[in-house]
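Milestone M4 deliverable, item 7.
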Amino acid sequence: MRSRRPERAGLVRAAALLAAATALAACGQATTTAVPPAATSSPSESEPIPGLNAADTVAHDRWQSAAPGDYRFTVDVRCFCPGSKPVEVTVRDGEVVSLEPAPPEFWSEVVVSVPDLFRLVGDLRGSADVVDVTYDSELGYPTTIAVDRITEAIDDEVSYVVTDFAPLS
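Output delivered:
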């Protein structure tokens, strides 16, 4: 029996490494399919966004009719990823002009303007098993986007939480 203990310890160590690698891969998976920043070719704000459901579309319409041209918000990408921290996003004339502090490299493309958050929701609705979104009742921007890409998988969940939204001038 004692001769099997080192073998069991090796299996436990291998399982722990596999679990860590799976968690890190899930983080990468959660961000590699993100919508690129607004500076790349993206549909105009007035065009319908593919993948949005009825509630998403109502919120998007509210955003389009009430959105300030310049605004600031904080976004926190919550996942099983190291180094994630909230980032303040400043948008002027529809373009992201500031990210403070600089976001971790593995999710910087997620930090975008509010219209790009709507495009992210549309993309996720077509690819993830579960997408729960809450919206600001006044302006319509997403306040929380909670995603479970594969319901049977462990540690692949990610949430995008928007706080401290404020119009500028």
